[in-house]
Structure formats: C-alpha cells, structure tokens
Amino acid sequence: MDLASSSYQVGGSISSSTSIYVERQADQELTQALLEGKFCYVFNSRQMGKSSLLLHTKEHLQQQNITCCFIDVSRIGSTDTKSEQWYGGLVYELCRGFGLIGTFDVLKWWRELGELTPAQKLSDFLEKVLLPNCPGQLVVFLDEIDSVLSLPFSSDDFFSVIRFCFNQRAANKEFERLQFALFGVALPTDLMTNKTRSPFNIGHAVSLQGFQSAEAVHLVKGLPFNQDIAQAMVQRIVYWTGGQPFLTQKLCQLSVNRHDQPPLSVEQCCEWVDELIEQEVLADWEGQDNPEHLRTIRDRLLLDEQHTLQSLSIYQKVLEAGDKGLPLEQVSGHSRLYLTGLIEVIRGRIYSRNRLYTQVYDMNWVTSQLSARRPYFEAFNAWLDSGQSDEQLLQGQALQEARSWAKGKALPDDDYRFLAASQDAEKRKIEALNQQLTQEIKERELAQQQLKEALDDVKKAQQEAERANQAKSEFLRRVSHEVRTPINAVLGLSYLAQQGSDPVTMSYLEKIHNSANYLLGMIGDIVDYSQIEQGKLRLDPTPFYLDTLLDKLVDIIGQRAVNQGLALRLHSPLQPLPKVLGDELRLEQVLLNILTNAIKNTEHGSIDLSVNLLEQSENALTLAFSINDTGPGLPTAVIDALVDTEQHSPKNNSLGMGLNLCKQLVSLMNGTWKISAEPSKGSQVGFTITLATVGQVPQLQLSDTQDVCYFGDLPHPEISQRLQAIGIQHANDAQLLAAKLILFDPKLTQPKTLDSRWVALLPSGQNQSASLPKSRVTRLLNYPMTISKLDRHLQSMLHYRPQTDLQNETVTDSQWSVLVAEDNDINQQVISELLARWGIASVISENGQQALTAVQQQDFDLVLMDVNMPLMNGLQATEAIRALDDIKYQQLPIIAMTAHAHEEDRQATQAAGMNEHVTKPIDPNALKTTLEKYLNAPISAQTSVHSKRVDWLETIPQLRLRETLDRVADNRSLLQRLVRRFAEQYSPAQVDWQGLPHQTQAQQANWLHTLKGTSSNVGLADIAALAASMEQEAANQSLQLNQWQLLQQQVSQACTTIFTVSDNNTSAQTATQDKGNLKAQLTELYRLLEEDLSEAQQLLATLSEYPQYTDIASALDEFRTDDVEQLVHNWLQQLEDA
C-alpha cells in the first residue's frame, strides 16, 4: 500500500477524496437539511471534524449545482474591529465567495448607503445585490462563528439578519434560494447578548458524534498491516477514543509510524495498541500533546472561570457513574462541559466521551482542580462526608468571602445547596442573635433604668453631701470668725503693750502672743482639714528663720510639758541658718501636731525635738525633723497609715485629724516620713524636707562674751554646747567677780550670794523655781532655745536699763487719712492705736452704710473694711463705692478685714472689688506691709505708747480687772479708755431698751452678739455671759421680756458706776528718754535686724534726732545689714564708754 497516499491527517479539514475520510450520519443529515432549505448550525467541541464536515457537504452540494460560499468568520476580524468594518468585510467575503468581485464595486456601493446601519446594509446587500445577481440555490457556510464572541460590539443584529432572511421567504420567494450553515464551538445562547432574541429557534441543529464501529472501518485502509490485524487495531483504537475523530486519526497515524514493529497476531493487537497509547499519549501527555488536543480540552475546561467549577463537578459525577452514565435530569448546565469534548449525551445519559479522557482527566486530577478552585473545599467536603451536617457549614467572614467569590459563577448543584444551607444557618444564627440581642437590649434598658435610678439616688446623696459640706464650711467660717474676734483683741492689745517693757514682761508678752497664735493655729487646723477633704489645700511659701519657728514652738509647747512633768529638749544646729523659703504656718502645724501628740501620750520622761542639717548647698537646705518621746509607742495602725504613701485619704481614722493633716502637709512639701516605735520605750516620728534658702547667713550679735559666764552644773549638755558656741565659758572665781551676767540652774546650783547679775535658767513654761528666792533674782532665761534666741536675749540683758513710763504722744500732722469700717469697738480701738503709732489719722464707721456716706463726704487715702457689719456689710458697701460715678472711687484702695480665712472668702472680697484681704486677728506687720503697698510709701513708728497707772478701775465691782489687765499686757491707760468707751456706747441715752424686745430675731441676735464681744473684751464677764445666753435663745426665738429687763439693769448699773468713778481729766506725764532708754532701744533694734527689718525701720525712725541716725538709715535702706549692725554696735559702745 502506498503510505503517502493513505496517510492520516491529524487536525485540520480532511478532503473526502482521500481514503481516510470517514463519512458519518451528520454528513447525510446536514446535506439533506440544506437541500430542504433549512437554516442549519453545527455547534460542537473542537477537533470533532466540523471543518471536514463543512468541506464534504460543500463539495456534495456543488456536485448538485448549488452555489456555495465558505467564509471563515475569524478571518474578518475580532477584538479591534469596528462594526462598520466587520459588516463591510462580511459583504466583501460574500462577493468574493459568490464571484461578484469583478462585476460589483463593493466599496462604492457601501459608501453610497451612507448612514444606514451595518446590519441594514448587509440585509440590503442580500436582497438587492446577492439574490438578483446569483441565480439558483445559494448556501453560505460560516465557520468559526464563535469568533463573534470576541467582537467589541454585539453581534445580535447579524443573527437577526439571518432570521430576517428566513422569515422573509413568506413575502419574497427569492429568499427561499438562500440558506445559511453555521459551524463553531459555542452555544446558541452564548452568541446572543440579548437573551430575549432567539434567531436559533428557527434553525436545525446537527449533532456531530464520533466514529461508530461500522463507520471507522474505512480507517483500516490506511494501516500498513494485513487486513485482520489492521481491523483489530482499528477496533482497539476506537475502544480507547470512542470514535473521537482527532484522537482516532492520531492513533492511526502513530500506528503507521510503528509499521516496522507490527503486532505478530490479532491477539497481540490490543496489547500493542495499549502500549502505544501508554507510551505515545498518556506518558507526559502535556509534553507529547502535539498537535494540541488534550491541552486544548484542559484549557477550555479550566480557563472559563465562570463555569469551571460547575463543569468539573459534573465531570466528577460522570466519572463516578462510569459506564452506567449520569442521568441528564440529575444535572444542569452540562452544555459547557459538552463543548469541551469531554462528554457525550446518549439517550438521556451523560458519559465520558472515551476511555482515554478518563485516563488523562481522572478522578485525582478532577479532585485536585476542584480543591484548588473551590475556596471552601475543606468545609464542603466535610459537609458532604458528614451527610450535610450543619456543623460543617460556612459562617461569618468565610461565608461572606464564599458568596463574593461565587457571584457571577455557574456552580454545581451541591455548591448551591451548600452555600444556601450555610446562608440559612447564618440567617438562623443571626435571628437567634437578634433575639438574644433584643433580650439583652431589654435587659440593658432595664439595667439602664435601674442605673439611672441609682445615679439619681447617688446624685441626691451627693447633693445632700454637698449641702452638708456647705453647712459644715459655713459652720467652720462662723466658728473661725467667732474665735478669731477675741483673739484679735488679745494679739492687738498685747502688741501695743510690748513697747519698752522689761525682759521679764517681754517674756510674758511673747508667751501670750505665741499662745494666741497657737489658738489661731488650732483654728487653722480645723479649717485646713476641711480644705483637705475638699482638695483645696495649697502651700503659701514665704521667707522665714527656722530658729524663730523653733523658739516659737518651745514657747507654745513648754508650758504643757511642764504641767505634765516632762522635760522638753531641743537639738538644733549650733550655728545660725539663713532664711528659708517655705510655708512657715504649715511646717509649724506639722511640728505642733506631732509634739502635742507626743505630750498627750507620754506620762513621764522627756520630749526631744531634733533638727539635723543633712545637706547644705548654695541655694537649699535638707533638714531632718524628729520628735522622740518616752511614751508607750505609737499603735501599729498609726505607723502603717503614716508610712503607707498610698493612703492619701483625709478620712484615715487611724491617724486622727492632727496626724492626718500632718501627713497631707508633708506630702505637699515633697517630704518623706520616718516612723519607729518600741513598746514601753517610746516612739520617733520624723520627716525630711528640702527648703530653698534666701539671703545670707545671719551673724551672732553678742560681742562682750567675756562679760557673760555660767556657774555650776547645767541641766542639759545642749545648753552648755550652745553657750560655748557663742563663746561663753564656765566661770572661775575671777570671772565671777568681773562678769556682768552669770547663768546658773537653781535646781542644781545654790550660790551663796545672789545679785542682779545672776540669771536663773528655768525650763520653758516655768517662771519661778521653788528653790529660787524671788526677791533676790529678777532675771530669768527659759530653756531650751535656739542659738539665735540665746544670743539675742543675752545681748538684750547686757544692755537693758529700766525706763520710766512714756507719755502717750499724739501725732498732730498725720500724712495719711484712713477710713476704718468696723462694728466692734475693741477692734476699732486696736486698729486706731496701730494707725496712730504709724502717723496715720483714722475715721471710724460702724457699718457699711456709714462708710459709704463717709467716703462721699471726705477724701481718704485708703479704706479698711470689715466684711461682717450690720445694716450693710463690707461686700455690699464696697460694691456701692465702686459703683459711684467718679473715677476716684474706682481707684480708692479698699482692704478687707475679716475673721473668715477661707479661700472662697478671699475670692468673694475680690469679686466685690476689694484690693486686698487681711485676716483677723490683725497681724500688725502684715497690716503695715499692706498699708505701705497701697499708700506707696514706707511707714515708721511715731511714738512709744505706755499708760499712766490709775487706780479707779479697781473700784468697779463688775470688772474682772486682773484677768482683763493680763489680756492687755497690764496697760491700764488703754483699759481705762476701753471701759470708758463701753460706758458711753451703752449708756441709757444710747440704747433703745424699749424697742429692742420688739425687733426681729436677726436684729436682736446681731445686737446681742456685738454686746457679748465688747463686754467680754473690757472684762465685764457677767454682762458678756448674759448676752451670750440671750443670743442663743434669740436664735431659738424663745427670749422673754424679763430677760431684756435684767440685761438693761446690769448694763445701766455698770455704765453708771464707770461714769461715777472714772477720772476724765487724767493728765499725761511727759517722760524723757535718758541714756538707759536709748541703750534699750538700740538693743531692741539689734534684735529686729534679725527678725523684721520693717519693725527695725519703725524703731529707727524714733531716733531720727540723733546724729548717728543718718548713716544707719542710709545703710538700712540699702539692706546693708552688716553695716547697720556695726554702726549700732559702735553707738552702744560709745554709750558704755560715756
């Protein structure tokens, strides 16, 4: 056999003239349909022989004188082709196929149709050009029709033209001569974009199957083997290929290629063909697939992402069904898979097209492809394996991602069921969650309602607590005011009485002053504790001397220690320290509280106050304070509370108010606590703080140390150390004779002779020793004391000389005029005396209304305004003054005076328009500083005030003279004026005794309050007690008329007695300043240079008549204190030498 003429063609169109073309049923069906004038289409997978069928049919029709035109649609164009070009190209191909090119100008005709649509032009060509110019039957074969899917425009109009030609046959018989046959790999529905249009429902679909056994016998002719072997080989090849034309032709050609190794018998043919397929096809099928066939099927199956999963799933079921086939009704969407060529449909069942495909695309391959493309394959497989259990369904984010992935894809039915079941389960879950959420919302709404009610209760409780706090704050303000008012009198009057007193009296007055200040401190503790609770406590740093503070503490606490039989010892640096910057009042509060607590808890032994200088730099001191006692020791709860830095609550009950306040204050000072205690041995409470320094270190002033010595044993080593630090030594016999001052302890030493040189050392708080003859020793020195106080007191004793009483001088030409608005006569007297000493004239107003009238009648340089006054209070009066229509009333300095010391009180005075706030009791130094600030000039003292002793006070039986004189430092002249003022104020002519019982409760309480304070200040205790009792009953609205009558009787009787016994013509005595007075003033000036330069300036002003005044005043104005001290020392030395 000639192999060249009988070779097989693998791929491409096969001519029917060759011996290897196999005619199938489709050949006859297509030819017959076209002869009958039907519109035919052959849609099948690739490499099924469509082109060969087309060519064979065309040749057969032409043999019957039917004109045919073959057009490869893919040749016209696709992706970059415009509709005008594509339709024009189609018309051109028709002209070429039907032989009209030489007789018909296509381009000219096309242009002449102008703006007609391309589809209209095609229709017009078929009707008016093609049919008239081409006689007989005409058949148009359109191959690769699926290429229209790549066009950038819809091809629906083209298929509508074909339908038009078919439908037009009824109206125009010429159209019966025109038939169309379409070939391609597509579904009719794929070719139509508009799914509502259906041109293919008029067509005839021609099914193209593989070679049947009877049809394939023609292939035997091409095999170079004997007839029996060739026939057996073809049968085995068809067994593998199922008659698939491409594969059948290829295997036949591969058999020809091995003609030199033929099977030896018919029995060997099967094995021979199987081995051929294994070696030439299955082994590395992708690499040996040339020309492509298997890879083409694979790509058509996998690259169609929209339908891949559905096609793979159907094919998987086809493989599972095997030879039984898969019933067509059990699947949907198999058409896509059919176009790949993998399957065939026979009598309502789907089968794999051939065995070779099942070997290449086996179950493993299909499963791996499904797993790779199904993002939820694990869950899906588990769902199937579990019998579609809900536990394996998708949920949440995985379900959302799967739905997004599946959108627009054709999926297998199981996938749809899986996703639908997942969606339903998710919906049920959401519904359950919604129900749960609804329930939770209801519960939350209920909880919110309960919370709202609870918050309302809390708010009400907070409001109640705020009202309670406000009431407590108001109570504290009232208590503070009530207590500060009499203390104001004690401090003010004792201050006036200090000028020029002897050292013993000065010591008494100093203790009175310190004790009164201690009472103020206690009031401050109460107020501060309230501020701590409200978080309002703030420090107020000012410069002060630490030694001054320590001596003040000793004076305050010494008497208590003596009364309880305890020894009080002070351990402080043996050299003066510079001024430090800190809150002196708060530091004093801390130390006083700890000392008080130590004394309270110690029955016998000693209290030691120690101050150690840990570190000193150029600008700061680090100091360790500690208080040691010999008591039973602090309770553990107190120690824990003080040490535990986390417990900042002011309500720590284990500490009590005092120590609680201490803890908060030390914390504000950035200090640290140190606590230790041993049962029955006592406790140590201390803290360490760092304070900034201000100015230079002061120098000791005692220069005549050889004039001072100490005799015998001293009560404590600290005393001898301090004396030796100053330069004072233990006395020998020669020193005793020459010394001007001899210090001794009367308890430890009994000198044989005593004179004015001997100074007794007694514990602080003790003014007389049982072993000390009072008549023979007039000088006392209390210990312990700092080295600064020791130096100052010894200096004062060396230069002290007794002085006569000085006349109360009146300053006749005051430089300034001040309005004093104050309803309490004692306070009026104290402030007037202070202003007079400073050369300031004063006018008194008893209430805000009088003050408002006074400022409009007279020009004042400044106003001192009490806040709490009758008729119109100080705040109202200030607002009224500021509202007056003159700029001078806005510029007039108004200083508030009040016993209320709270921050809100300061803010209230500022809001009313007051410039400054001075707290009662009035501190003379603070008042003087404030006056200098707003008068814009320094103030110096004008006189020294002393009273002439008179006896008429002792004749008033209602007067508690001794107690009252102690309160005014034995200043009888001052007391005489105060008593006389009381009598004038409350005489029968001045008081409306008939109208008082009929006034309002508030007016009665206010009048009684004023009477109580005034009578108490002048020593009329019975009247004060009765007024206090009636004030309380007035508050309860239970006053009786007989009580007013009793009060009138007592007050009138007291006034009558005062007027009867008083001497209104007491003449002032003029005293001269002798040498002794001058030395005492210079010694006092020494002391003030260390403690208060403003007071030093005042005192220096009284010495302006002396020639030394100019140099000293000049040095003091420039704050050259060392030069001032030297000049004063020289002046004293001149007086001694004289």
Automatic annotation (TrEMBL):
List the Pfam families hit by this protein, alphabetically: AAA_35 (PF14516), HATPase_c (PF02518), HisKA (PF00512), Hpt (PF01627), Response_reg (PF00072)
Superkingdom per UniProt:
Bacteria
Give this protein's Gene Ontology molecular function annotations. ATP binding; phosphorelay sensor kinase activity
Chief place of localization: membrane
Q: Where do the coiled-coil regions begin and end? A: 420-478, 1079-1106
Q: Where is the Histidine kinase domain?
A: 478-693
Q: Which InterPro entries match?
A: CheY-like_superfamily, HATPase_C_sf, HATPase_dom, His_kinase_dom, HisK_dim/P_dom, HisK_dim/P_sf, HPT_dom_sf, P-loop_NTPase
- A GO cellular component annotation in the UniProt record: plasma membrane
Enzyme Commission identifier(s): 2.7.13.3
CDD domains (alphabetical): HisKA (cd00082), REC_hyHK_CKI1_RcsC-like (cd17546)
Mark the residues carrying the PTM 4-aspartylphosphate: 866
- State the PROSITE patterns in the record: HIS_KIN, RESPONSE_REGULATORY
Q: Which part of the chain is the Response regulatory domain?
A: 817-935
Q: According to its UniProt record, where is this protein located?
A: Cell membrane
Membrane-protein topology: Multi-pass membrane protein
Print the keywords alphabetically.
ATP-binding, Cell membrane, Coiled coil, Membrane, Nucleotide-binding, Phosphoprotein, Transmembrane, Transmembrane helix, Two-component regulatory system
Q: Which reaction does it catalyse?
A: ATP + protein L-histidine = ADP + protein N-phospho-L-histidine
Its name, as the record gives it, is histidine kinase
State the organism of origin.
Paraferrimonas haliotis
